[in-house]
Each structure stands twice: as C-alpha cells, then as structure tokens.
User: Which sequence fits this backbone?
C-alpha cells in the first residue's frame, strides 16, 4: 500500500512540474485535458472497471455538472465552486434514480440503458429554454482588471497555468480516493460483484447497494470534471456535453490504458489526449475532418495490432514498481 | 384521420428502422460485437446511391443491388481487416476498434465529399404518393418499407432454411462446438458481417430517396438501431422487426402528441420502460 501511494505521489509530482518546463499554451492545454479525462476515466473505472457495469452514458453526469455550474453563474452569478458541488449532488441524485431501473439489467442491456438515459437528458436540454436549449450557454466573462483572488473565486483565468493546478488538485484527490476505494472493503466487494453477482450475493454482499454507491461516487466525480471543463472552455451546448463521443472517449482511454486499475485511466489519457491534440493542432482547423480521420485510424491500428499492448505496457510498468496489475483484464469479461 | 395518417407513417418508418436493426442484430447476436460503425455503413450506402444517381443517372431503386453489394464487401473487409484481429481481445476492445473505424469513415466522408447536405430530388419514386381512404403516404416511404419487409423475410428465411444460415446459428450458439462439427466459423463470421452490411446497404439506398445525405447522417440511426436491437433482444431478427415497429410508432405518435423535439427522448424512454418488464428484450431469453 505504501508503494502504491508513492507511485501515485510521483505521478502527481510529474504533472505538477511538467508545465513549468514550457510556456507553450498547447502543452498546457493538453495537460489540462489529460488531467480532466484521466479523472473522468477514474470515475468510469469505479463503476465499470471495479463493479463491472459497463456505462456508455457518463456524458450525462459530465454534462449535468457542466450545466449546473454554468447556469448558476450565468443566471444568478453564483461562484462555480458552489455550482460545482451542486452539480455533483444533482448528478449523484440522477445516478441514484437511474440506477434503480438500470441495475436490474445485465451486460449490454445495461450499457444500452445508460446510453438511453444520456440521450434522454440531451434531448431535454436541447429543448429546455431555461438552459438556453440548443443555442448553449456562453459563460459571462469577468472584467479583465480582476485580481487573482476574484479570478480564483469565479474560476476564470487569463493564463492556463492555474487551470493545470486546479485540475491537478481534483485529479490527485480522485486518484487517492480511487486507490483507497480499491483497497478498502468496498473495493473488494465491487470486484466480487464483477466476478460473480450470484456468488457475491451468496456470501452476504448486497450488490444493489454497492453498485449504487459506486455509481453515486462516479457520477459526483464526473460532474466535478464537467464543471471544470465548462469553466475552462467557457462555452457549452447540449450536443457537445452530452454526446456519445464524450462517453466513448472515456471508455476508450480507460479500456486501452487498462481497465480495473487506478493506473489505467492515467496511462490511457497520457497516450490518447496528447495524440488527439497533436492530430488536431497539426491537421485540424481546415474543417475537412482529416484530423479525426487519422485519429480514428490510429485507434483502429492500436486496437488491432496491440489489443493488449497498452495494457501490457501498463503491466510492465506496474511490475517495475513491484506491483502486479490487479484485475487488469477481469473487468472486461462482464459484458456478455 | 390524422391519427391514422400518423400511425401509417410510424409503421412505414418502423420497417425501415427494422432493416437497419436486423443488420446490427446479426453481428451482435452471432459475434457478440457491438458494431459502432453500423451507422457509417448506412451513410456510405446513402452516398453510394447519391453518386450512382448523380454520376450515372442510376435511380436509387436500380442502384439498390449495387449498394447492397458494395456494403456487403465493406462488411467483409471490415471483418477480415479489423474484427478478426480483435474478436478474441478482452471485452470492450473490439467495440473500440469499431468506434475508431466509425470515426474514420465519418471523417473520410467529410474529407472527400464535404459536410454539405445532399439530396436525391428526382428519383423515380420522388414526389409521388398514394392515397388510401384519406391517408396519404409518400411513395418513397411505401417502396422503402415494402423492400425492407421483403429483405427482412429473405434474411429470416436464409437463417432458418439454408445450410449456411444454420451454420451461422450454430456458430452463434457455441463457436467451439460448431468448429468441431466441421463448420468454418471464420467464414461464417465473415458472411455474417457481410450480411449485416448488405441489410444496412439496402436500407441506405432506400432512405437516400427521402433523407438528406451528409457525413453524420448515419450516426442518429445507429443509436436508434442499438435501442431497437436491445429492445428486441440481441441476435433476434424477429425482435429487431418488432422493435423497429415499436420505435417507429413511438417516434411518430410522440412527435405528434408531445412535439417533435421530444420524439427521440420518448424513443429512449420506451426502451427503459419495456426493459423493466422484459430485462432481456422482447424476444430475448
């Protein structure tokens, strides 16, 4: 456990120092997105990697978080810090409500149900005038002359560096939380549920309750990421925030990084976010879609020629730190 | 009379959805692979119909076999190029490969043919309609629905009556046992993927006569097809047919009573409701 903590601490330190070596905005931007998506991956990993319930609808929680803080600020001038917590609570409530009907379903049926929930929420937001419907919300900009504390209070910065550290604080909190959960009683319960629902039930675990806890925590974290993302890019609309692409991006980087391990989402995000940013910067902007074309092709090539490659590399890194990758592939068996 | 009109529209649309879903349920049921590129196959087929029409003045109905053939081949290429390599990889990897492929196809279409909407305005069936006791239905929809029914029946007959169809079903039940019985399971998988493509290829050519054609035109239908397949039960062709009809009707009636902006929300809601009663779909077991 101590070694585990040291590894996580080193990872945090690397991300804390990395942005200081360069002033390139593109690099800072990539690190910010990397941290946000790694955190989302950790959240998704809790419910899918540990508990074995494949969710294709995490964009719902991400979007709810983004919308709550944005609407609170846009309509009432409430600080995004408060909006963020509120967003987390609303997302958790939605997760609790949707879990009741969804957790009765198994495998793909559950996955499609989560996708359906996300699509329903998207459709509601598209035609809800209180949240500006399909037009989306441009978050009002605070005056240029504002001091650092005001900027921190309203979460708007002229520079990208503060964002790196805000995302890093969230990321660090979440990886330590997930590592704690993984090694706690709850973590073992969740893995037991993943391996066999019936056996878990037979030895006295209540699967419904533990899956619900995992879902609520996962939704809360995803919503925090959504709030931060919205404040960072300052514009949100339902098609962007609730899109299947966001849900799939989370699945992508966690699965290819190593599902069911705290390191997986970090490794996945460290590979895929810079890759997508690189193709976007190099080839995007022309509106021809060639950047996403190449990104899609790279995903196909990675999955085809190294189906276990990235996970394998993750395993080797973990071994170097004297640790076996726990449940590296187990979680994926659950989709049947 | 208005209600009759709406129900007629819903049923016709339902049959077309069903054809898209039949294609998806084949690969899903036989190989347990969610093909995220299914909607993009549909889009490519719509573009094929469009180019056949604008370059060779070939009517979409005449181009139907061409579309079927092209997407059939695309399906086989997808299988042998991508799916074969990932089918034994852990869980969600295969799904991600198809997701990457869908991203590639969608943006390839955008790169080659721009994101502009294109239409086939003066096809043979365009602008015609039939009137039945006060209910007016567009000819493109009638032809598309009729062709969808015929093709769905053909696929069902193929699966139940022919040796190849039975071999595919055996492969779906148990791959290893099928292999021991002398079935070339690799070939069955390839045929299944091709058939899946053929269904969606036909649907694309039929839909091209009354839907706009653009790179993202397949995306919405693929999400709806996921829901239809899950609603009917994975791998169940009859389920896909009834699921398609339910979704088509829900969409039409919901659009009328609640407003068109809520019709898709209702489509997804109906899935969540039905799945409570039948957790493995209408015809699943």
Assistant:
């Amino acid at each position: 456990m101590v070694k585990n903590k040291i590894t996580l601490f080193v990872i945090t330190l690397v991300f804390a120092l990395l942005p200081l070596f360069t002033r390139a905005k593109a690099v800072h931007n990539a690190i910010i997105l990397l941290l946000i998506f790694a955190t989302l991956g950790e959240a998704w990993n809790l419910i899918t990697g540990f508990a074995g319930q494949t969710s294709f609808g995490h964009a719902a929680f991400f979007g709810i978080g983004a919308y709550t803080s944005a609407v609170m600020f846009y309509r009432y001038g409430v600080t995004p810090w408060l909006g963020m917590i509120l967003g987390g609570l609303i997302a958790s409530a939605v997760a609790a409500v949707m879990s009741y009907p969804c957790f009765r379903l198994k495998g793909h049926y559950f996955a499609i149900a989560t996708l359906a929930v996300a699509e329903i929420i998207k459709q509601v937001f598209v035609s809800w005038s209180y949240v500006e419907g399909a037009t989306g919300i441009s978050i009002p900009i605070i005056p240029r002359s504002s001091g650092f504390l005001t900027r921190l209070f309203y979460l708007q910065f002229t520079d990208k560096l503060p964002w790196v550290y805000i995302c890093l604080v969230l990321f660090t909190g979440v990886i330590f939380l997930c590592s704690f959960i993984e090694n706690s009683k709850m973590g073992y319960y969740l893995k037991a549920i993943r391996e066999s629902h019936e056996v878990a039930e037979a030895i006295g675990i209540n699967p419904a309750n533990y899956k619900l806890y995992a879902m609520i925590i996962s939704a809360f974290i995803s919503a925090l990421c959504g709030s931060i993302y919205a404040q960072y890019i300052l514009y949100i609309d339902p098609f962007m925030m609730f899109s299947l692409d966001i849900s799939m991006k989370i699945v992508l980087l966690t699965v290819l990084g190593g599902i069911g391990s705290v390191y997986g989402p970090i490794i996945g995000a460290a590979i895929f976010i810079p890759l997508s940013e690189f193709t976007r910067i190099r080839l995007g902007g022309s509106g021809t879609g060639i950047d996403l074309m190449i990104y899609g092709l790279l995903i196909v090539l990675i999955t085809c020629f190294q189906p276990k490659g990235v996970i394998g590399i993750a395993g080797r890194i973990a071994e170097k730190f004297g640790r076996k990758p726990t449940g590296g592939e187990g979680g994926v068996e659950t989709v049947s | 009379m208005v209600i009759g009109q709406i129900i007629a529209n819903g049923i016709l649309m339902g049959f077309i959805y069903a054809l898209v879903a039949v294609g998806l349920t084949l690969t899903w049921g036989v190989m347990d692979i969610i093909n995220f590129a299914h909607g993009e196959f549909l889009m490519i087929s719509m573009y094929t119909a469009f180019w056949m029409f604008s370059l060779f003045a070939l009517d979409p109905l005449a181009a139907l076999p061409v579309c079927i053939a092209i997407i059939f081949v695309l399906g086989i290429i997808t299988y042998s190029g991508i799916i074969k390599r990932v089918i034994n990889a852990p869980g969600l990897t295969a799904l991600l490969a198809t997701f990457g492929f869908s991203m590639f196809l969608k943006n390839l279409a955008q790169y080659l043919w721009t994101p502009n909407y294109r239409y086939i305005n003066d096809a043979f069936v365009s602008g015609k309609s039939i009137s039945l006791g006060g209910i007016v239905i567009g000819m493109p929809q009638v032809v598309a629905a009729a062709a969808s029914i015929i093709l769905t029946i053909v696929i069902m007959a193929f699966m139940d009556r022919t040796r190849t169809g039975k071999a595919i079903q055996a492969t779906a039940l148990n791959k290893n046992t099928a292999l021991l019985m002398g079935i070339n399971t690799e070939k069955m998988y390839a045929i299944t993927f091709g058939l899946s493509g053929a269904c969606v290829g036909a649907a694309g050519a039929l839909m091209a006569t009354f839907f706009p054609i653009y790179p993202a035109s397949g995306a919405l239908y693929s999400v709806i097809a996921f829901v239809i397949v899950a609603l009917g039960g994975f791998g169940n062709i009859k389920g896909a047919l009834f699921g398609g009809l339910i979704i088509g009707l829900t969409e039409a009636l919901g659009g009328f009573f609640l407003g068109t902006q809520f019709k898709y929300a209702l489509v997804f809601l109906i899935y969540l409701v039905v799945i409570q009663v039948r957790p493995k779909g209408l015809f699943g077991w």
